[in-house]
Amino acid sequence: MNEKKLSRPLISLIVSIALIIVGIAGSFILQTNSGKTTIRNVTIESESGHTLAMDVYIPENATAETPAPAIFVQHGGNNNKEEMQHYCIELARRGYVAIGVDMYGMGESEPLPDSEWLTQGRGLYDAVRYGVTLPYVDTDRVSLLGYSRGGKAAGEALQCDNDSLNVVKAIFLIHSDPIVRNSEGYTDVYGARDVAVLADKNDEFFFSEKANDNGTYSNDANKYAANLSSPAEYVINNSAQSFLYFGIDPATTSEQRVAETVYEQDYGGKTGSRQIFVSNETHMAGWWSPLVMNRVLTFFNRVMPTGTALSASSYTYTIWNIFKIIALSGLLFALAMALSFIEGTLVIPGLLPGMKLGLANIVVMYALFFMGPRQALVLGVLKALVVFLVSGWTAGFLSLCGGLLSLLVMWVLYYKLPFRPTWFILSVCGALAHNVGQLLGAGVIISSSLSLYYAPVMLVLGLVMGALTSVTLRALLPALGKMGFNTHENRPE
């Protein structure tokens, strides 16, 4: 009998390990382009005297004899270089040296005081200074790719470049405003460079120019796109038109330039280009969008061709992400199982036999917030199945009742409300729902009056466990981010 009980969790553990191995192996193969890309984790003491962390993706075609164009990839605010891994993967597949950079104060780069953190484009230009010293980098073909706040960093790095090496030849801004004005009015800071902007019509943070009552447009950096009617037609605004017209005052033009079109201008024998792409997604959704990826690759194929036969529509990053999810699911499944085992060893006065504290709900919370409802549901059902195998049908039924009601409540609060509650509120409500679900399940098995006897204890424990799971999940996120797992919340804005 004991041997049978031991074999069931062992089988579950084997399944978890198998998922982890398959996921890691598959993601590694795709991340390295079947071994054709070498990935180096680099930490340097930058020229400005600070510690700067980077991931350097080196395709096999990039050598000292045949240096390749380099693209410096900058993540968005409050994140790290792993956020932009999928861009680095696809760029390296096409023969570019892709260098993902941790901003100062984020990821593994050195935190700086508020008065200093803009140093060298928040670290991006320090990365450029380092990158152009690498023997396999073609210093005549250096570009910047920035998402959100990373786009602002690219603009700041550009101005550093104007005053220094003048090596940056192209810039792509994903969901980030281009520089179109200075203290004197409209300006052209990009010069003879190729520059493209991906402007999302439903962006919550950028492209905030709004129409006045008289039909003219004004731009105030303190006004956000929430003030705009949706969808926002950025391309018709003064800022966009000035950008497409290479810095002139749009009031001096009669013809309106349009999205998806390349506009060129001669700069004394050198040619610069401007282009605005448009998408219909939100700020966060565009980060992962195949459409955005297509536009990025289309742009760099045009301005810095590597001769690769790969089209801009040839992706592997979505499959790579599936393998990451498989690995993460195995890890989360194993963690949920371990927490369930721990719960099974605890004797809490006032708990009905078979009831659980809900420690394993932290796993479901992560899946719900960062992977989506479907993944959370799968993990919740698998967790209940493990409890059933280990502790019997009563414990499994109670686990399922608690898990499903907890998931339903958190899903409604997180995805369906017009505003987003705090993690603390979500966690507490989820924990309370978990315990209420167990009480309801117990009422089915035994008398309802007897299950109500346990209600006060369960509700108090729900408050305590809700607070604990919220704090624990927040503490785990930085470590998960460094491992390359998603730390972008999945909730659409």
Short key terms for the protein model shown above:
single chain, alpha/beta, Arp2/3 complex 21 kDa subunit ARPC3, Rossmann fold, nine-stranded mixed beta sheet, two-stranded antiparallel sheet, 17% strand
Structural class: alpha/beta
CATH superfamily grouping of the largest domain: Alpha/Beta hydrolase fold, catalytic domain
Q: The CATH topology of the largest domain, please?
A: Rossmann fold
Shape: elongated
CATH class of the largest domain: Alpha Beta
Total of helices: 15
Whole-angstrom Rg? 26 Å
Give the termini distance in whole angstroms.
52 Å
How many structural units, i.e. domains? 2
Strand content: 15-25%
Main sheet summary: 9 strands, mixed
Low-confidence stretches: 1-6, 211-229
Tell me which CATH architecture of the largest domain applies here. Answer: 3-Layer(aba) Sandwich
Strand order of the largest sheet: 1-2-4-3-5-6-9-13-12
Write the H/E string, N to C. HEEEHEHHEHEEEEEEHEEHHHHHHHHH
**Proportion of helical residues:** 40-55%
Q: What is the overall pLDDT average?
A: 83
What is the strand tally?
13
Q: What does this entry look like structurally?
A:
It is a single chain. 46% of the residues lie in helices and 17% in strands. With 493 residues, the protein is of the alpha/beta class. It folds into two domains: 179 residues, Arp2/3 complex 21 kDa subunit ARPC3; 280 residues, Alpha/Beta hydrolase fold, catalytic domain (Rossmann fold), CATH 3.40.50. The strands form three sheets. The chain has a nine-stranded mixed beta sheet, sandwiched between helices. A two-stranded antiparallel ribbon has the order 7-8. A two-stranded antiparallel ribbon has the order 10-11. Helix 1 packs antiparallel against helix 11, helix 9 runs antiparallel to helix 10 and helix 10 runs parallel beside helix 12. The N terminus is likely disordered.
